[in-house]
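Review this chain:
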Amino acid sequence: MSTNTGHDGLAAALFSRNRRAILGLLFGHADEAFYLRQLVRTLGGGVGAIQRELKQLAAAGIIRREVRGKQVYFQADPDCPIFHELKSLMAKTVGVADVLRAALEPLAEQIRIALLYGSVARGEQTRTSDVDLLVVSDVSFADIVAALGPAQQELQREVNPTVYPADEFRSKLAAGHHFLKRVLGQPNVFLIGDKNELAGLAE
């Protein structure tokens, strides 16, 4: 799946960040259903904001809402008149996270946190935007770069990983490191780990 198309930035113009993230996840995994807290953990947004978007998308017939026991699940609605168009649009504009997540999957057991920041996470990327990635892991920088190589080729974009061992990340965070404060103070898209894992590292 390549995102090197003239459609970069199109999703940002059409949809809010939360809606874009929800549609990207649900239409990128159209055969899967997700419950609310799962969506919040994965997307990194606020519960209230995610709930509002889900309610509106379900009311519009774009996604399905289904109660199973005590959980409410959401899924892309294949009966939506523009299902295939949305799926194609999301693949072309929001697919960066999935490509990188798959690339890092073989190392996932050794990675505490992997998140996107910068223009891609803000949904403001252009065709020439680099992809900024923060990784907290004891895996070497060289091994992270090697794992990302095929993804970089597929995306046809420069992927810039910043890698910190867990202990170094924790100490820099405690010291109020400028770079980390800036990165974590802006929108992030979690590839591995979530807000809870990040909070645990900060303790």
Q: What stands out?
A: The chain has two domains: 10-93, 96-202. Residues 1-8 have pLDDT under 50 and may be disordered. The chain has eleven helices and seven strands. Residues 97 and 191 are 7 Å apart (CA to CA).
